[in-house]
Design goal:
heterodimer, A: about 60 residues, 2 helices, disordered C terminus, B: Alpha-Beta Plaits, 5 domains, seven-stranded mixed beta sheet, six-stranded antiparallel beta sheet, 28 helices
Chain lengths: ~60, ~850
């Protein structure tokens, strides 16, 4: 039976840690803007293209 | 992909053009690759893409050079057309030390960080482009967007790129920053979700989940052999519910207390009572070893209530509804001292100062024209539809916008005494706060509800006191617990919040959820004409006189291109023809322009200039006379065009609200009059007339919605129950209001009104639903049979069903409103 107490203590500690992490995340402003971070990861895959090669349109599927 | 961009649209300028030989034809129009507008006046082809103007093409070229074409893939037609009207910006202002100091957050070793307000950002592409500015300009180190506040924070090497150059770059790509140096950064941190609410919500969710888990053995029927374990769980639940009581639910206590102090019953009082009862009863049960307590219900209740609060905060619009006079006027003006031009604050201007006002800029103070030709557009202040001429020596009032070349003015009165400032203080400085609060439906319900709960618990207590005194405490607390109006409190934020979101999708933006309810009760709609029903910048024209041949029209257009006068621009845009070069062009101030096009001398301008007969001017219309080869041929009549959707905005109100038209003009165009039919029209209204008219309607017992646009409507907007401003772009100037209507959505207004009414009905229905749950719960409670398990089921069940019901019902209502519209357009 004692193992249950151990389990509960452990799980509660983990839960409290997560709560603390969440509180830290909120306070550090991670929930302030839920729009731009989702866009931030897009389009970064391509390296910055030097201006000279702009006529080369292979990297531009629209052209 | 290209096929998608080919849109077959009716040419926007073909109506009423029979007189000037523009044929009624339907021609396929291309949409601009950059901004998505139809290419009407100009069409440029570049890199196998279509553009509507040089500005759009230039931005595309810039982005393409920098390898930023992803911009066009993240969202459809993301670009912002460079609108002259909205570009209040003068980059040189950013060179002024005071301005710079207010914007710069950090500056060391040539590296500077500034935060700019960029209201033009609106989609994923905007964010992406603005965060990749370093690819356009290597001197930029890092740029970060805060979308909810429409702010852009840029770190750059100021030794290589001045702040002014940075601002000019932003302007060039279509995102001119606003100069709002006056505002306190903290106060500006939007009405969005406060951080603390997330923490409260997180703690409530944490407690809810864990306590529910701890309660499972109890519900699943653990026997007494596990007594120690169960007891341990109960105390753990008690500990976990403490932060819920003491931290997460503080808002409800403060609100309830505020209500008590002002002797008002509000919905938070029974909630606070329920929370306290829940905790007291549960703690007593656990400590006295009577039962497991209702901690899971407590945590669940607070969690659901906070979700409601979060949703309410989340649905607030990121638009600014309260405007300050300083939002309208340039904060800094160019003062001329001898030959030296310097920038000074508007408030520092003194009588006799010389100031320079350039094209598209507002005149900040009452002043006298000293140099140049004033071509003042007063539409924002007075609602006058067309710009008026001002010659040297004339007085120009503050708030007018110069269109044309730069003018020099002498300050007549300092800013504090100017006409505009007085007008503003009389009418427009008021926001909805001054408006007498319309009693909210939820408060009326809460009042009866609270009284009923107190009576029932007292009655139950008295009944049990006579029968079994030991049952008084459990029964009374059980009644207070189960009668807690959680679902009731959730129904309004969710129903109205969701309605706001749905309306926002269709171009109607409301200040807050309360406006939905006020709008639902509107039974009279008052429209302003100029700028509201008629467009601000779109004109229509017809020719009176000997008809011009297409060849002659082409010459007129060619000459008109060489003139800076706004009416010339109207002619240039209104005539469809190729342009050829005009030579010997001479513009005579206040008269017109002359020149030779393909060997033929032309004059366009006033009647005297073209040696034509003076024709009586109809107010609201302007004339451009034309003489070809020395012969007066007639004149173009130019007037503002009615917005599309005007007739449905009026006709659709039938059966819902009476419609009224107020205008500052002395007559009403036939088109507008026809659309209004028998409705009440009032012409020649001054701003005080307008607010008096609204007040009279209110005295007759009507609830009035005023739809207007300019400062001349501000008084009426503030007086009305719902003030709605019509706006063509997010950066346009609108007075304080409860709601902002996208000009393109004017025809949707009746549907929006219908939807708010439906939303109110839905709230009423959901109140019935949640009351049913309360009655069920209370019947358990008075019988003394409310076990923790029943409470734990009833509480979340009622909240989830009510929220689900209102969300689905409002979505369905919106679908119905906008589907019926599609059918209607098909029929007509």
């Amino acid at each position: 039976m004692n193992v249950i107490f151990l389990l509960i203590t452990a799980s509660t500690v983990v839960a409290v840690l997560f709560l603390a992490a969440f509180t830290w995340a909120v306070r550090s402003g991670q929930f302030d803007d839920d729009r731009s971070p989702s866009v931030r990861i897009l389009g970064d895959a391509r390296p910055v293209k030097p201006i000279e090669s702009s006529s080369n349109s292979t990297t531009n599927p629209n052209a | 992909m290209c096929i998608n961009r080919l849109m077959f649209v009716r040419s926007a300028l073909v109506t009423d053009f029979d007189f000037c030989h523009v044929k009624r034809v339907t021609i396929p129009l291309l949409t601009c690759y950059h901004c998505g507008d139809t290419c009407r006046d100009e069409h440029l082809r570049f890199d196998e893409k279509d553009f509507c103007c040089q500005g759009c093409r230039a931005v595309y070229g810039l982005l393409q050079e920098s390898g930023l074409c992803d911009y066009y893939e993240l969202a459809e037609k993301p670009g912002v057309k460079e609108e002259r009207d909205t570009s209040e910006l003068r980059p040189e202002l950013f060179e002024i030390a005071e301005v710079r100091d207010k914007l710069v957050e950090y500056s060391e070793d040539g590296i500077t960080r500034v935060t700019l307000s960029v209201p033009q950002m609106h989609c994923s592409s905007c964010i992406w482009l603005l965060e990749n500015l370093q690819r356009v300009e290597p001197a930029i180190i890092r740029s970060r967007v805060r979308f909810s506040e429409k702010e852009l924070s840029i770190t750059f090497r100021e030794d290589r790129l001045s702040l002014r150059a940075l601002v000019e770059l932003l302007r060039r790509i279509g995102y001119p920053p606003l100069l709002n140096t006056d505002r306190d950064k903290k106060a500006r941190r939007g009405p969005g979700v406060p951080r603390i609410l997330y923490v409260k919500l997180g703690i409530a969710a944490f407690a809810f989940g864990n306590i529910m888990l701890f309660s499972f053995p109890e519900y699943l029927g653990a026997d007494d052999s596990d007594h120690l374990l169960l007891k341990g769980f109960q105390y753990l639940s008690l500990v976990f519910s403490l932060p819920v009581l003491l931290f997460s639910s503080t808002d409800f206590f403060t609100s309830a207390w505020a209500g008590i102090r002002t002797r008002q019953v509000n919905i938070d009082q029974p909630i606070a009572l329920g929370i306290v009862a829940l905790f007291a009863r549960s703690a007593a049960d656990v400590i006295l070893d009577i039962g497991p307590g209702y901690f899971d219900s407590l945590a669940g209740l607070v969690f659901f209530l906070l979700v409601g609060r979060w949703y309410q905060a989340y649905t607030y619009q990121a638009l600014s509804f309260d405007r300050d006079l300083s939002d309208f006027l340039p904060l800094v003006v160019i003062r001329k001292k001898g030959e030296v031009e310097e920038a000074v604050g508007v408030g520092d201007l003194a009588e006799g100062d010389r100031i320079v006002v350039r094209d598209q800029e507002l005149v900040p103070v009452d002043s006298v024209l000293r140099e140049g030709i004033g071509n003042i557009d007063n539409s924002f202040i007075t609602g006058e539809p067309l710009p008026v001429r001002r010659a040297v020596g004339d007085t120009v009032r503050a708030g007018g916008r110069q269109r044309g070349a730069a003018i020099e003015l002498e300050v007549l009165r300092p800013f504090q005494q100017s006409h505009l400032k007085r007008l503003w203080e009389e009418h427009a400085g008021t926001s909805a706060q001054r408006r007498p609060a319309m009693p909210r439906m939820i408060d009326a319900v809460a009042q009866r509800f609270t009284i009923a709960v107190l009576l029932i618990s007292a009655a139950a207590g008295i009944y049990w006191a006579g029968k079994d005194a030991a049952m008084v405490w459990p029964v009374v607390t059980a009644v207070l617990i189960v009668a807690c109006p959680c679902a009731l409190a959730l129904s309004m934020p969710f129903a109205y919040g969701h309605t706001m979101r749905l309306l926002g999708k269709h171009g109607v933006f409301l200040r807050d959820a309360e406006v939905v309810e006020r709008m639902a009760r509107v039974d009279a709609v008052v429209y302003d004409k100029t700028g509201t029903l008629t467009a601000r910048e779109a004109y229509e024209m017809r020719f009176v006189g000997v008809p011009l041949t297409p060849d002659e029209e082409q010459r007129v257009r060619s000459l008109a291109r060489n003139s800076a006068h706004p009416l010339s621009a109207v002619l240039y845009n209104g005539i469809k023809a190729e342009v050829s070069d005009a030579i010997e062009v001479e513009e005579v101030a206040g008269m017109g322009v002359s020149g030779v096009v393909r060997g033929l001398a032309l004059r366009i301008g006033s009647a005297t200039y073209t040696q034509g007969e003076r024709v009586e001017l109809v107010p609201g219309e302007a004339q451009v006379h034309v003489a070809i080869g020395g012969m007066h041929r007639g004149y173009f009549v130019v007037r503002k065009r009615a917005r599309s959707g005007m007739s449905s905005a009026i006709a659709g109100m039938k059966g819902m609200a009476s419609t009224h038209l107020l205008t500052g003009d002395s007559n009403v165009d036939a088109e507008v009059a026809a659309a209004f039919g028998e409705a009440t029209m009032r012409v020649g209204c001054t701003p005080p007339d307008k607010s008096a008219y609204v007040a009279d309607l209110q005295k007759e017992g009507h609830r009035v919605m005023m739809v207007g646009d300019g400062l001349n409507d501000a008084g009426a907007l503030a007086q009305s129950d719902v003030g709605m401003t019509v706006s063509e772009s997010s950066a346009a100037l609108t007075p304080a209001s409860d709601a902002i209507l996208d000009a393109r959505s004017l025809g949707h207004l009746p549907k929006a009104l219908w939807l708010t009414r439906k939303a109110r009905t839905i709230v009423k229905m959901s109140l019935g639903l949640s009351l049913m749950y309360n009655v069920t719960g209370v019947s358990f409670a008075v019988a003394g049979k409310l076990t923790p398990l029943i409470a734990a089921i009833l509480m979340p069940l009622s909240s989830v069903t009510v929220v689900g019901f209102v969300t689905l019902a409002t979505t369905w209502a919106a679908l119905r409103a906008w589907r019926s519209d599609r059918n209607m357009t098909k029929v007509s």
